[in-house]
């Protein structure tokens, strides 16, 4: 059963939206927005849908009400949407909430973010770092990309940065 974890978090100048595959810990989609409106959540979910080859059976989201109408609109009614997940809820969302902590840890030495554009670019690069470079102890020292069996033949850092500028699709060649 494929299950995605989804949540958003506020970082000084922006909202950061993240969608992660539960099994591989692969950060499927991110979006930085200045607001937290229905349109922002829909844009984020559409970007996520574009990035996957098949729908998950379930998406677990935090308590943001936007997800209730937008998840079925973007992914269809056959998908199970579990809203209102939290650290102590019956259906937890700890993976993506822990990711937010990691992102905050990265932003802290930079004294937070002061401009939307630079913060957004940093978060796009963080997605590449998190998926392809950073080994995860839970994954036995492998990256989420290795667990998901996503290979970028002879990829370079430049290629990874180029990928971060587009909706995430594999196929960049150095």
Q: Order of strands side by side in the largest beta sheet?
A: 3-2-1-4-5
Category by helix and strand content: alpha/beta
Fraction in helix: 25-40%
Spans of at least 5 consecutive residues whose pLDDT stays below 50 are: 168-174
Shape: globular
Q: What's the total number of strands? A: 5
**Main sheet, how many strands, which sense, barrel?**
5 strands, mixed
Number of helices: 6
Terminal Cα span: 34 Å
Describe what this molecule looks like in 3D:
With 174 residues, this protein is of the alpha/beta class. The protein is built from 6 helices and 5 strands, in the order βββαβαβαααα. It has helices at residues 38-50, 66-75, 94-107, 116-133, 144-147, 157-164; strands at residues 3-11, 14-21, 27-33, 58-61, 80-82. Strands 3-2-1-4-5 form a 5-stranded mixed sheet, sandwiched between helices. β1 (3-11) and β2 form a beta hairpin. α1 (38-50) runs parallel beside α2 and α4 crosses α6. The model is unreliable at 168-174 (pLDDT under 50).
